[in-house]
Amino acid sequence: MWESLKEFASTFFVTGDPLIYGSDVAIVLTLAAIVFVLTKYKKWGWLWREWLTTVDHKKIGIMYLISALLMLFRGGVDALLMRAQLAFPNLEFLDSNHYNEIFTTHGTIMILFMAMPLLFALFNWVVPLQIGARDVAFPFLNAVSFWLFFFGALLFNISFVIGGSPDAGWLSYPPLSEEPFSMGPGQNFWIWGIQISGIGSLMTGINFIVTILKMRAPGMTLMKMPMFTWSVLSSCIMIIIAFPVLTVTIALLYLDRFLGAHFFTLDGGGNPMMYINLIWMWGHPEVYIVVVPAFGIYSDVVATFSRKKLFGYASMVAAVMSIAIVSYFTWGHHFFTMGTGAGVIAFFAVATMLIAIPTGVKVFNWMFTMFRGRISFKLPMLWTIAFIPCFVIGGATGVMLSMAPADYQYHNSYFLIGHFHQTLIGGVVFGYLAGMYYWWPKLFGFKLNEKLGQWAFWFWNIGFYVCFMPQYALGFMGMTRRYYTYGWDYGWETLNLVSTIGAFLMGIGFLFQVWQILYSIKNMEKEKDTTGDPWDGRTLEWSIPSPAPFYNFAVIPKVKDVDDWWRIKQEKANGTYKEEPVVLEPIHMPKNSGIPFVMAVFWFIAGFGFVWEWSWMAIIGMIGVFACMWARSFVYNDEYYVSVDEVRRIEASYGRVY
Amino acid sequence: MQQAAKHLEHGHAHDHGHGHHDLEQLKVLGFWIFLVTDCIMFGTLFATYAVMMHSYAGGPTPKELIEMPGIIASTFILLTSSFTSGLAVLAMNKGKLKALIGWLVITALLGLSFVLLEISEFTHLVHEGATIATSGYWSAFYTLVGTHGLHVSIGFFWMLALIIQLPRQGITPVTNRKVTTLSLYWHFLDVVWIFLFTVVYLMGVM
Questions:
Q1: What integer is the mean pLDDT of B159-163?
Q2: Cβ-count burial of A348 within 10 angstroms (0-12 exposed, 13-18 middle, 19+ buried)?
């Protein structure tokens, strides 16, 4: 009995690495601290009522933000571990297997568990406020999406202390990711972590399409929508078309591993190339899913901080929406070297180059918006200005990669690594950070400290170029991705060391941001936003008080212009504004529900069962999931009204009298 | 301009009178978009099946094993159930609660017999030596056909939930929307089956 228990524990827990033992201790201590604090201050009920059961899009957005920042930390530590290993030739800081695990989790976490939730945080914060709505179309579903993401991410992340991390790369190409080559549960953690959170992403896509199409304030025609909302629409269209492909692809991979099917195996008629095609049918739109909303953020930020209308609004809309379409026809450029024939390669090469056109249009639009504007260099604007040259270089190297004959030289080299980090950090991360700084006061009621933010900004930016510029050169010198070490005789040591220094500079930048957030929370009275419009904004979210009341708008606005709040301010300034009589009415709101949380817990149980191939546990979990859906179907009374007196009282507490 | 303003006013008044009605409309639109995603999911499975169509790896082929009479019977059962679910919606629109429930019960029973027939078909195939692990072809076959069967099974339980709720709730905007989305789902599965029947059974077997 004792022996079998011991044997089970030795396969169940990851053993033998001091780094892992250190993490074990840290996890146990953190959990104990959380439980202690919640118990001591009697906060369990508060946690359940205010957060775990909430359907308020703003609170869900905050939970997405916290999760994303934690994941940015973990993905960043992974990156620093890799860069430490590559700092000098022949280092033995990480062994090859550990290195494989770390590049796999770094990539997966940064795209799926950092970029996606940060994206959804901004969707949730901003879209209903920008379009003058009181919540998203399906608040309950929104909570389900969040909790599925959360428990999917949790499932993926526990793999490094329980069962072992996946190590077949962030897209887990077969045959490497198949059973004989990746034994054990690590690969299954990858599959089920992504599967569960991916279903949540899909539902977010549906939710926001309906929200944007159907819940806009009266008068806001499509061509009067703020640019960020347009970019979210584009992103969501890509989500609903790309994510089902991901769901199917990794389900098939799991069937191969679990039931011995032959989709992507080398024997039995399987075809590994099919996987690579399928995964990139999702994977390429995915990078546009994360970057297009960043373009929306830049558009809103650039107009606000240049105090000018966005230049070329209609062309911007056309650019953002055309990317949503062309993005489906570029997936083949990820494997030009696979040998699919000249015609196919030419098609994907041309489609890829086409993407550069709308992107170029946008860059000119942003620059013409700044031209002769009164630019104020606040944090959101700083990140936007830093983004432009960075993304132009990243885009140009992308066009270089799209030329198929040349790609045979660049393929899977550090040139590629330099390129996609430049677009994903310089495009996506810079954009989301700009968005976080920009909309932070609306959510929390105070600004983040400018000075610490500038330190973070410069560390990030200088660090970025120091880290990634050498990688282009390393690519030309023949260094391919996923090398875990190299010899002194390769001539790569100087550039690798420089790159590592850059990575640590970015790490310092992140620490400054953590400090900035903590400092600003502690001193929130100093930077308090009393007006609800701290940046002299242009769109509807700035017309309501900060932090936004839970019902968002006491009165649903009537929209006449793209920059409607700016119009109102202008009209008030020159005396042409006509005050309309305001009639407060009871506000219809959704009730909180515990079902999304419980359902996601059952998904987690099912996922854990699938990972270990314990059918009994998977069955219990799935029965729980369906029982939750069944229970939800019987709930008929899930809405309530906020009385006029209550609304009047809350608005008065912000100094707004109706 | 005047017209636009008039439209706005109308929209506003509409908002107050039928707040619930609008909310239910949103859910129907959301469900249509869900069906788009489901469509893409099946599309991916069909594409996989097309790639695997001749990957028998020396194992049995569908021509040797699949018995068409059972398939044709289940096809007619599913098509009939689509018709009866349409009748259920018609009864609902006329406000006939009992007829609505009756047609739903018939639809659910037809759906159940479709699933049972499929299970017996799969059992037969497994006994003949064609499992999901036999070859790429059978992997794709079981996954595509099985995913459709799983959808029908989920639809069956959904219908069961509505059959329980309807006598208590009656025909309200909420139950109306529920029956509408369920019948959309059911028709969608019917359409998928028509493609499946053509691609898998007609092209693969006959």
A1: 96
A2: buried
* pLDDT value of position A340: 84
B135-148 per-residue burial string, b: 16 or more CB within 10 A, e: under 16 = bbbbbbbbbbbebb
For tokens 């944007």, name the residue.
A212
In the CATH hierarchy, which top-level class contains the domain A43-570?
mainly alpha
Alpha-carbon Rg of chain A, whole angstroms? 25
Q: Scanning the structure block, which residue is given the tokens 């011991």?
A: A6
Chain B, window 164-193: residues with a beta carbon less than 8 angstroms from a chain A beta carbon: 165, 169, 174, 178
Q: Residue A234: is its pLDDT beyond 80?
A: yes
What string of DSSP letters covers A245-287?
Answer: HHHHHHHHHHHHHHH---SS-SSTT--HHHHHHHHHHHHHHHH
Q: pLDDT digits over A54-104, tens only?
A: 999 999 999 999 999 999 999 999 999 999 999 999 999 999 999 999 999
Check whether B12 has a pLDDT greater than 50.
no
ipTM of the complex: 0.94
* Among chain B residues, CA nearest to A559: B8
A222 C-beta neighbours (distance < 10 Å), count? 12
Cα angle for residues A326, A331, A337 (degrees, 5° grid): 140
Quick one: DSSP state of residue B117?
H
How far is Cα B133 from Cα B200, in angstroms, rounded to an integer? 18
Name the token pair of A625. Answer: 């999931």
Number of DSSP helices (H) and strands (E) in chain B, helices first? 8, 0
Query: Closest by alpha carbon to A384, among A449, A431, A447, A324?
Result: A431
Q: Residue A405 carries which side chain, given as an amino acid letter?
A: P
Q: How far is CA A521 from CA A345, A548, A640, in A?
A: 53, 17, 33
User: To 10 degrees, what angle do helices A139-158 and A57-86 make?
Assistant: 20
For residue A639, the 8-state DSSP code is E
- Contact assignment for A137 to B52 by CB distance below 8 Å: no
Q: Which residue of A has its CA nearest to B137?
A: A269
Please state the separation of Cα A178 from the chain's center in Å.
Answer: 28
* Per-residue H/E/C for A332-343: HHHHHHHCCCHH
- Does pLDDT of A583 surpass 90? no
Condensed to tens digits (0 to 9), the pLDDT of residues A424-478 reads 999 999 999 999 999 999 999 999 999 999 999 999 999 999 999 999 999 999 9
Closest by Cα among A62, A104, A213, A188 to A550? A62
Paired tokens of A623: 């029965």
Q: How many alpha carbons fall within 13 Å on the CB side of residue A420?
A: 20
Q: Which percentage of chain B shows pLDDT scores above 90?
A: 86
- What phi and psi values does residue A642 have, to the nearest 5 degrees? -95, 125
Rounded CA gap, B188 and A360, in Å?
Answer: 41
The answer to whether the peptide bond before residue B167 is cis (omega within 30 degrees of 0) is no
CA angle A107, A111, A113 (to 5 degrees): 105
Q: Which of B132, B164, B176 to mutate to test the interface with A (most CBs of A within 10 A)?
A: B132
DSSP three-state, residue B156: helix
DSSP A222: G
Residue A131 near residue A215 (C-beta atoms within 8 A): yes
Q: Is the minimum CB–CB distance between A627 and chain B shorter than 8 Å?
A: no
Are B38 and A244 an interchain contact pair (Cβ–Cβ within 8 Å)?
yes
Residue pair A440/A447 in contact (Cβ under 8 Å)? The answer is: yes
10 Å Cβ neighbour count for A508?
14
Q: Kindly state the tokens that stand for A35.
A: 């439980």
Environment class of A35 (CB within 10 Å of its CB; exposed 0-12, middle 13-18, buried 19+)? exposed
Q: What is the SS3 assignment for A484? A: coil
Domain boundaries defined on chain A: 43-570
Instruction: Return the pLDDT at B17.
Output: 38
Angle at A652 between CA A648 and CA A653, to 5 degrees: 125
Quick check: A13 and A162 in contact, CB under 8 A? Answer: yes
